[in-house]
Amino acid sequence: MTILGSAQFLERIQFFNGERLFAADLQALEAFNREMRWLHNQSLHQAGVGSGFLVTGNTGDRQVVVSPGYALDSCGREIILTEPQTISIPPVADDGSGAPVYYDLAVAYPSDSQLAPSETRVGVCSPTPGVVRLREEPVFCWVQLTADPTNRQPLDPTLQKRIKTGLLIVLAQIQILNCQLKLPVSTAQRRNARPGVQPYIACGAEAGGSNWALSDLFGRKIGDTNIPATFGTFVFTLTVDAASAGFQSTPDYMARISGSRVGKTAKENIPFFLDALLNIPGATDPNPPTGVGFSLQIFPFIVATNTSVPISDVVEAIRKWNVVWMGVED
User: Where are the domains of the chain?
Assistant: First the structure.
Protein backbone atom coordinates (compact mmCIF):
# COMPACT_ATOMS: atom_id res chain seq x y z
CA MET A 1 0.00 0.00 0.00
CA THR A 2 1.48 3.36 -1.05
CA ILE A 3 0.12 6.88 -1.03
CA LEU A 4 0.94 7.39 -4.69
CA GLY A 5 -0.75 4.13 -5.54
CA SER A 6 -3.89 4.85 -3.52
CA ALA A 7 -4.42 8.47 -4.58
CA GLN A 8 -5.29 9.31 -8.17
CA PHE A 9 -4.20 12.94 -7.73
CA LEU A 10 -3.34 15.56 -5.14
CA GLU A 11 -4.90 19.01 -5.07
CA ARG A 12 -3.31 22.15 -3.70
CA ILE A 13 -5.96 24.03 -1.79
CA GLN A 14 -6.29 27.74 -2.63
CA PHE A 15 -8.34 30.45 -0.88
CA PHE A 16 -9.46 33.93 -1.87
CA ASN A 17 -10.77 36.91 0.07
CA GLY A 18 -14.48 36.67 0.71
CA GLU A 19 -14.64 32.94 0.01
CA ARG A 20 -17.18 30.98 2.01
CA LEU A 21 -15.37 28.10 3.66
CA PHE A 22 -16.84 24.76 4.64
CA ALA A 23 -15.47 22.16 7.02
CA ALA A 24 -14.61 20.01 4.00
CA ASP A 25 -12.34 22.75 2.64
CA LEU A 26 -10.26 22.92 5.80
CA GLN A 27 -10.22 19.16 6.15
CA ALA A 28 -8.99 18.88 2.56
CA LEU A 29 -6.15 21.26 3.38
CA GLU A 30 -5.21 19.22 6.42
CA ALA A 31 -5.46 16.01 4.39
CA PHE A 32 -3.12 17.39 1.70
CA ASN A 33 -0.44 18.32 4.25
CA ARG A 34 -0.87 14.99 6.04
CA GLU A 35 -0.54 12.91 2.88
CA MET A 36 2.52 14.82 1.73
CA ARG A 37 4.12 14.21 5.14
CA TRP A 38 3.23 10.53 4.99
CA LEU A 39 4.71 10.30 1.51
CA HIS A 40 7.94 11.83 2.83
CA ASN A 41 8.05 9.34 5.71
CA GLN A 42 7.24 6.41 3.49
CA SER A 43 9.87 7.35 0.91
CA LEU A 44 12.79 8.06 3.23
CA HIS A 45 12.22 5.79 6.22
CA GLN A 46 11.26 2.22 6.94
CA ALA A 47 8.51 1.07 9.25
CA GLY A 48 9.70 0.88 12.83
CA VAL A 49 10.43 2.79 16.02
CA GLY A 50 11.90 6.25 15.60
CA SER A 51 12.44 7.00 19.28
CA GLY A 52 11.13 5.93 22.65
CA PHE A 53 8.49 3.20 22.97
CA LEU A 54 10.68 1.43 25.51
CA VAL A 55 8.83 -1.53 27.05
CA THR A 56 9.83 -2.58 30.57
CA GLY A 57 8.72 -5.41 32.82
CA ASN A 58 10.51 -7.76 35.20
CA THR A 59 10.10 -11.38 36.21
CA GLY A 60 6.87 -11.85 38.16
CA ASP A 61 5.17 -8.70 36.86
CA ARG A 62 1.63 -8.90 35.51
CA GLN A 63 1.93 -5.77 33.42
CA VAL A 64 4.42 -3.89 31.28
CA VAL A 65 5.08 -0.16 31.02
CA VAL A 66 5.52 1.53 27.65
CA SER A 67 7.35 4.86 27.58
CA PRO A 68 6.36 7.75 25.27
CA GLY A 69 7.57 7.24 21.75
CA TYR A 70 7.35 7.88 18.04
CA ALA A 71 7.10 5.24 15.32
CA LEU A 72 6.18 4.95 11.65
CA ASP A 73 4.18 2.30 9.85
CA SER A 74 4.72 1.23 6.24
CA CYS A 75 2.28 3.90 5.01
CA GLY A 76 4.41 6.61 6.61
CA ARG A 77 1.80 7.32 9.28
CA GLU A 78 3.07 8.57 12.63
CA ILE A 79 2.32 6.46 15.69
CA ILE A 80 2.70 8.67 18.75
CA LEU A 81 2.47 8.00 22.48
CA THR A 82 2.81 11.13 24.61
CA GLU A 83 2.49 9.64 28.11
CA PRO A 84 3.71 6.39 29.72
CA GLN A 85 1.13 3.64 29.46
CA THR A 86 0.69 0.54 31.61
CA ILE A 87 -0.60 -2.54 29.77
CA SER A 88 -1.74 -5.73 31.49
CA ILE A 89 -0.32 -8.96 30.10
CA PRO A 90 -2.67 -11.68 28.81
CA PRO A 91 -3.99 -13.85 31.71
CA VAL A 92 -2.68 -17.25 30.59
CA ALA A 93 -1.18 -20.00 32.75
CA ASP A 94 0.90 -21.96 30.24
CA ASP A 95 0.78 -23.50 26.77
CA GLY A 96 -1.01 -26.63 28.04
CA SER A 97 2.16 -28.60 28.71
CA GLY A 98 3.69 -26.46 31.44
CA ALA A 99 5.80 -24.28 29.15
CA PRO A 100 5.54 -20.48 28.90
CA VAL A 101 3.46 -18.78 26.23
CA TYR A 102 5.16 -16.22 23.98
CA TYR A 103 3.58 -12.91 23.00
CA ASP A 104 4.71 -9.90 21.01
CA LEU A 105 3.50 -6.46 21.98
CA ALA A 106 2.66 -4.52 18.82
CA VAL A 107 1.44 -1.01 18.16
CA ALA A 108 -0.54 0.41 15.24
CA TYR A 109 -1.77 3.71 13.84
CA PRO A 110 -5.34 4.38 15.01
CA SER A 111 -8.25 5.27 12.79
CA ASP A 112 -10.34 8.31 13.73
CA SER A 113 -13.07 6.01 15.05
CA GLN A 114 -10.61 4.51 17.55
CA LEU A 115 -9.68 7.87 19.08
CA ALA A 116 -11.54 9.50 21.94
CA PRO A 117 -12.82 13.05 21.42
CA SER A 118 -10.98 15.63 23.52
CA GLU A 119 -13.16 18.58 22.51
CA THR A 120 -16.62 19.07 21.01
CA ARG A 121 -18.41 22.25 19.97
CA VAL A 122 -21.93 23.29 19.09
CA GLY A 123 -22.31 24.68 15.59
CA VAL A 124 -23.68 28.16 14.86
CA CYS A 125 -26.69 26.82 12.99
CA SER A 126 -26.97 23.44 14.68
CA PRO A 127 -27.45 22.55 18.35
CA THR A 128 -25.85 19.14 17.76
CA PRO A 129 -22.27 19.17 19.06
CA GLY A 130 -19.50 18.07 16.76
CA VAL A 131 -16.02 16.74 17.46
CA VAL A 132 -13.24 19.22 16.72
CA ARG A 133 -10.29 17.47 18.39
CA LEU A 134 -9.30 13.83 18.79
CA ARG A 135 -6.76 12.75 21.39
CA GLU A 136 -3.85 11.04 19.63
CA GLU A 137 -3.35 7.56 21.10
CA PRO A 138 -1.81 4.48 19.49
CA VAL A 139 -3.49 1.10 19.41
CA PHE A 140 -1.66 -1.67 21.31
CA CYS A 141 -2.30 -5.38 20.91
CA TRP A 142 -0.82 -8.63 22.16
CA VAL A 143 0.11 -11.10 19.42
CA GLN A 144 0.39 -14.73 20.51
CA LEU A 145 3.25 -16.64 18.92
CA THR A 146 3.74 -20.25 17.92
CA ALA A 147 5.56 -22.66 20.21
CA ASP A 148 8.31 -23.43 17.67
CA PRO A 149 11.51 -22.10 19.32
CA THR A 150 13.35 -21.90 15.99
CA ASN A 151 10.72 -19.82 14.19
CA ARG A 152 8.16 -18.12 16.38
CA GLN A 153 5.40 -16.63 14.24
CA PRO A 154 2.02 -15.07 15.08
CA LEU A 155 -0.75 -17.62 15.40
CA ASP A 156 -3.26 -15.27 13.81
CA PRO A 157 -2.50 -15.10 10.04
CA THR A 158 -4.12 -11.66 9.79
CA LEU A 159 -1.85 -10.23 12.47
CA GLN A 160 1.12 -12.00 10.92
CA LYS A 161 0.41 -10.31 7.58
CA ARG A 162 0.00 -6.90 9.21
CA ILE A 163 3.36 -7.28 10.96
CA LYS A 164 5.12 -8.40 7.78
CA THR A 165 3.66 -5.50 5.81
CA GLY A 166 4.66 -2.99 8.47
CA LEU A 167 1.17 -1.97 9.56
CA LEU A 168 1.80 -3.41 13.03
CA ILE A 169 5.09 -2.48 14.69
CA VAL A 170 6.50 -5.01 17.15
CA LEU A 171 7.87 -3.33 20.28
CA ALA A 172 8.80 -6.23 22.57
CA GLN A 173 8.38 -9.92 23.33
CA ILE A 174 7.39 -11.57 26.61
CA GLN A 175 7.09 -15.05 28.09
CA ILE A 176 4.07 -15.69 30.33
CA LEU A 177 3.89 -18.50 32.87
CA ASN A 178 1.25 -18.67 35.58
CA CYS A 179 -0.22 -15.32 34.48
CA GLN A 180 3.02 -13.44 35.08
CA LEU A 181 6.27 -12.69 33.27
CA LYS A 182 8.64 -15.64 33.34
CA LEU A 183 11.57 -13.44 32.24
CA PRO A 184 12.13 -9.69 31.82
CA VAL A 185 10.78 -8.10 28.66
CA SER A 186 12.89 -8.59 25.52
CA THR A 187 13.17 -5.71 23.04
CA ALA A 188 15.50 -7.47 20.59
CA GLN A 189 12.58 -8.05 18.21
CA ARG A 190 11.84 -4.37 17.56
CA ARG A 191 12.81 -2.69 14.30
CA ASN A 192 14.24 0.78 13.99
CA ALA A 193 12.70 3.28 11.60
CA ARG A 194 16.21 4.57 11.08
CA PRO A 195 18.26 1.62 9.82
CA GLY A 196 21.60 1.12 11.50
CA VAL A 197 24.31 3.07 9.74
CA GLN A 198 26.55 0.62 7.93
CA PRO A 199 30.31 1.24 8.08
CA TYR A 200 31.32 3.67 5.35
CA ILE A 201 34.30 2.30 3.43
CA ALA A 202 36.45 4.18 0.95
CA CYS A 203 39.81 3.40 -0.61
CA GLY A 204 42.42 5.01 -2.78
CA ALA A 205 46.06 5.07 -3.81
CA GLU A 206 48.83 7.58 -3.19
CA ALA A 207 51.84 7.90 -5.46
CA GLY A 208 55.15 7.73 -3.63
CA GLY A 209 57.99 9.05 -5.77
CA SER A 210 59.73 12.04 -4.30
CA ASN A 211 56.95 12.40 -1.73
CA TRP A 212 58.64 9.81 0.47
CA ALA A 213 60.45 11.68 3.24
CA LEU A 214 63.52 10.02 4.80
CA SER A 215 64.32 10.39 8.46
CA ASP A 216 67.58 8.88 9.72
CA LEU A 217 68.10 8.40 13.41
CA PHE A 218 71.80 9.27 13.05
CA GLY A 219 71.50 12.32 10.78
CA ARG A 220 73.16 10.67 7.82
CA LYS A 221 72.66 11.88 4.25
CA ILE A 222 71.21 9.94 1.37
CA GLY A 223 74.35 10.69 -0.66
CA ASP A 224 76.53 8.78 1.81
CA THR A 225 76.68 5.70 -0.39
CA ASN A 226 78.96 3.87 2.04
CA ILE A 227 76.30 3.92 4.75
CA PRO A 228 74.68 0.45 4.90
CA ALA A 229 70.90 0.36 5.01
CA THR A 230 70.43 -1.26 8.42
CA PHE A 231 66.92 -2.07 9.64
CA GLY A 232 65.69 0.13 12.45
CA THR A 233 67.97 3.10 11.78
CA PHE A 234 65.80 5.06 9.35
CA VAL A 235 62.16 5.55 8.48
CA PHE A 236 60.27 6.78 5.41
CA THR A 237 57.10 8.84 5.79
CA LEU A 238 54.40 9.57 3.22
CA THR A 239 51.41 11.87 3.72
CA VAL A 240 48.27 10.25 2.30
CA ASP A 241 45.45 12.48 1.09
CA ALA A 242 42.01 10.95 1.82
CA ALA A 243 39.90 14.08 1.42
CA SER A 244 38.19 12.73 -1.70
CA ALA A 245 36.64 9.91 0.39
CA GLY A 246 34.39 12.40 2.17
CA PHE A 247 34.78 10.92 5.65
CA GLN A 248 32.76 12.77 8.27
CA SER A 249 34.87 11.49 11.16
CA THR A 250 38.25 9.89 11.59
CA PRO A 251 38.09 6.36 10.16
CA ASP A 252 40.24 3.34 10.87
CA TYR A 253 42.88 3.30 8.17
CA MET A 254 44.63 0.30 6.65
CA ALA A 255 47.39 0.46 4.07
CA ARG A 256 49.76 -1.67 2.04
CA ILE A 257 52.72 -1.06 -0.24
CA SER A 258 52.32 -1.52 -3.99
CA GLY A 259 55.50 -2.03 -5.99
CA SER A 260 58.42 -4.34 -6.67
CA ARG A 261 60.27 -5.76 -3.71
CA VAL A 262 63.46 -6.37 -5.70
CA GLY A 263 66.10 -3.68 -6.19
CA LYS A 264 69.65 -3.46 -7.50
CA THR A 265 72.67 -1.58 -6.28
CA ALA A 266 73.74 1.26 -8.56
CA LYS A 267 77.45 0.34 -8.76
CA GLU A 268 77.70 -3.44 -8.61
CA ASN A 269 74.21 -4.12 -10.01
CA ILE A 270 73.71 -6.64 -7.20
CA PRO A 271 70.05 -7.57 -6.58
CA PHE A 272 68.63 -7.31 -3.12
CA PHE A 273 65.19 -7.98 -1.58
CA LEU A 274 63.48 -5.03 0.05
CA ASP A 275 60.35 -4.91 2.19
CA ALA A 276 59.10 -2.82 5.09
CA LEU A 277 57.00 -2.79 8.21
CA LEU A 278 54.14 -0.29 8.14
CA ASN A 279 52.84 1.99 10.87
CA ILE A 280 50.02 4.54 10.94
CA PRO A 281 50.53 6.89 13.90
CA GLY A 282 47.70 6.93 16.41
CA ALA A 283 45.70 9.72 18.02
CA THR A 284 48.43 10.51 20.56
CA ASP A 285 51.07 11.16 17.89
CA PRO A 286 52.01 14.70 16.76
CA ASN A 287 50.23 14.20 13.41
CA PRO A 288 47.27 11.93 14.17
CA PRO A 289 45.02 10.56 11.41
CA THR A 290 42.01 12.65 10.47
CA GLY A 291 39.07 12.32 8.11
CA VAL A 292 41.10 13.97 5.37
CA GLY A 293 44.29 11.93 5.56
CA PHE A 294 47.04 10.29 7.55
CA SER A 295 50.79 9.78 7.64
CA LEU A 296 52.22 6.39 6.81
CA GLN A 297 55.57 5.34 8.22
CA ILE A 298 57.54 2.43 6.80
CA PHE A 299 60.60 0.79 8.30
CA PRO A 300 62.51 -0.96 5.48
CA PHE A 301 64.56 -4.10 5.86
CA ILE A 302 66.91 -5.61 3.28
CA VAL A 303 67.94 -9.14 2.43
CA ALA A 304 71.06 -9.33 0.21
CA THR A 305 74.23 -11.30 -0.31
CA ASN A 306 76.10 -8.05 0.00
CA THR A 307 75.08 -6.55 3.35
CA SER A 308 76.41 -3.07 2.58
CA VAL A 309 73.52 -1.89 0.42
CA PRO A 310 73.78 1.91 0.40
CA ILE A 311 70.85 3.97 1.61
CA SER A 312 70.77 5.77 -1.72
CA ASP A 313 69.95 2.52 -3.50
CA VAL A 314 67.20 1.77 -0.99
CA VAL A 315 65.75 5.24 -1.50
CA GLU A 316 65.73 4.70 -5.26
CA ALA A 317 63.79 1.44 -4.85
CA ILE A 318 61.34 2.84 -2.30
CA ARG A 319 60.51 5.85 -4.44
CA LYS A 320 59.00 3.41 -6.93
CA TRP A 321 56.53 2.30 -4.28
CA ASN A 322 52.96 3.53 -4.02
CA VAL A 323 50.52 3.22 -1.12
CA VAL A 324 47.12 1.57 -1.44
CA TRP A 325 44.86 2.45 1.46
CA MET A 326 41.39 1.84 2.83
CA GLY A 327 39.42 3.70 5.50
CA VAL A 328 36.50 2.28 7.47
CA GLU A 329 34.27 4.85 9.16
CA ASP A 330 31.94 3.51 11.84
Answer: 22-181, 200-329
